[in-house]
Design a protein that fits this description.
Radius of gyration: 23 Å
Shape: globular
Family: In the C-terminal section; belongs to the class-I pyridoxal-phosphate-dependent aminotransferase family.
Low-confidence stretches: 1-6, 78-92
CATH class of the largest domain: Alpha Beta
Oligomer: single chain
Keywords: Aminotransferase, DNA-binding, Pyridoxal phosphate, Transcription, Transcription regulation, Transferase
Protein name: PLP-dependent aminotransferase family protein
Strand content: 5-15%
GO molecular function: transaminase activity
CATH topology of the largest domain: Aspartate Aminotransferase, domain 2
CATH superfamily of the largest domain: Type I PLP-dependent aspartate aminotransferase-like (Major domain)
Number of strands: 16
Helix content: 40-55%
Number of helices: 17
CATH architecture of the largest domain: 3-Layer(aba) Sandwich
Length: 461
């Protein structure tokens, strides 16, 4: 923080912005909103903002660029960002990849990045909603919220789910601290040490870490281009009698595959016959067409738990997700949430509700899908030029699952590219089997056209 006596609104504003910069919320190189925009959002004069910007400039935290505005200085390093030299003898495991994704390293090309570029999400303009949230819910900002979460947001999500033809009342929806807390609540409720849980293979790697912490026996269901392999699913159901199957029907991470309607129906038949609960993770819903098949739509939440998130379409920093299921189970899971976290953040939930209930949000998601479509096309072209084998060619996806010629082990490829400032997400990380060797990597389409990737491959060749 800036060390000085705080005796004006400008000082307070400068301190607040300095804290955001030092904590990495405003990363190096980020453009600040204009003086006029800050003044309108804060309800103060332009002179107040100018003085705050002058304080930050004098302390080297921001810098003006003629004709472009103010930017966070590139030499600024977040106070909580620990310098970690990536070494080749360090295991490239789940925690390693998560740490890499949470660090801001402008000099590194992170093709394994899990999020869209910041500039894709900036048009949501989070700063515009702060005053509205404070004016309408100031009393609630000083106490815990409902165990279910902010009711108007649950009502907005009821409408969102209706767009997927999923009928859910607000009493069937529990707001969470992101999709990851939703998964954690389900695991705490259902899983005991030694229980078998089925997952997509390859699949969502943070889930594997959560299941390992719970002592679960994790069994992978191979992922085909049209969804889970049904024969293997049948074998595992007969052999292990699992309680849960975590799967992703739309835009599956990392393979970019969608579950076909025929497979979704068959999965539900098997689930009913074997008393299996399907946990459907739809965290990428806003990036994909509404018309794609979702298991929860076919099942109407009778034996399905549907999990959603806005990390990829609004902001990961808000940390708002949700789960939807039958009302009795929703009440139990809300109790789990209350016991483990008391409540989720009503301030964040009010902010998200203000965003998604605004007519601008639909335009934003449409623009987001258009950007994704262009980036996917460019990424496919880039991989094709390199002779890559793309597991599933699609019109739009946050990720592509692909292997490069000459590299049977993507872990070794990732280790070689680290030396040249390129980070990959090797396929072994996405398998529940720690000894799995994979030629595939998960590539974020937004960064694949960067010339540094081809240059790094040439260097190691």
């Amino acid at each position: 923080m800036i060390g000085r006596e705080k005796n004006s609104l400008s000082d307070s504003m400068a301190d607040n912005l300095a804290k955001q910069i030092e904590e990495g919320l405003l990363p190096a190189g980020a453009k600040l909103p204009s003086i006029r925009e800050y003044a309108e959002a804060s309800g103060c004069s332009k002179n107040t903002v100018i003085r705050a910007f002058e304080i930050l400039t004098a302390n080297g935290l921001i810098e003006p660029r003629r004709g472009s505005g103010f930017f966070v200085s590139r030499q600024v390093k977040a106070a909580n960002q620990v310098d970690e030299t990536t070494t080749l003898d360090r295991a490239m495991d789940v925690v390693w990849l998560m740490r890499e994704q949470l660090q801001v390293k402008p000099e590194v090309l992170n093709l394994g990045e899990g999020f869209p570029p910041v500039e894709w999400l900036e048009e949501t303009r989070l700063d515009q909603y702060h005053q509205r949230v404070v004016r309408t819910g100031v009393a609630s900002l000083f106490r815990y919220g409902s165990r279910y979460g902010y009711l108007p947001l649950r009502q907005s999500l009821q409408q969102k789910l209706a767009g997927y033809e999923i009928e859910a009342s607000p009493s069937q929806i529990v707001l969470t601290h992101g999709a990851n807390q939703a998964m954690d609540m389900v695991i705490r409720y259902y899983v005991r040490p030694g229980d078998t849980v089925l997952v997509d293979d390859p699949g969502y790697y943070p889930l594997f870490g959560k299941l390992k912490l719970s002592g679960a026996n994790i069994v992978g269901v191979p992922r085909d281009v049209d969804g889970p392999n049904i024969l293997k699913l049948e074998e595992h159901l007969a052999a292990y009698r699992p309680k849960l199957f975590f799967t992703q029907s739309v835009g599956q991470n990392p393979t970019a595959t969608d579950t076909s309607a025929a497979k979704a129906h068959r999965i539900l038949q098997l689930a009913e016959a074997h008393d299996l609960t399907i946990v459907e993770n739809d965290a990428l819903a806003d990036l994909r067409p509404r018309t794609l098949t979702r298991i929860a739509t076919l099942d109407q939440l009778r034996g399905t738990i549907y999990i959603g998130s806005f990390a990829k379409s609004v902001s990961a920093a808000l940390r708002v997700g949700f789960l939807a299921c039958n009302a009795s189970l929703a009440s139990d899971l809300a109790d789990v949430k209350m016991l483990t976290h008391v409540s989720s953040s009503e301030y964040c939930e009010r902010t998200l509700d203000a965003i998604i209930s605004d007519g601008h949000f639909l335009r934003h998601t449409n623009h987001l899908q258009e950007k994704l479509q262009r980036a996917t096309s460019a990424a496919i072209n880039a991989l094709t030029r390199l002779g890559a084998d793309i597991y599933k060619v699609t019109d739009r996806s946050m990720y592509l699952w692909a292997s490069l010629p000459g590299y049977a082990d993507s872990m070794k490829l990732a280790e070689a590219l680290i030396k040249h400032g390129v980070i990959l997400a090797p396929g072994a990380i996405f398998s529940p089997r720690s000894d799995q060797v994979s030629a595939y990597c998960r590539f974020n389409v937004a960064y694949l056209a960067d010339k540094r990737f081809a240059a790094a491959l040439s260097a190691i060749a």
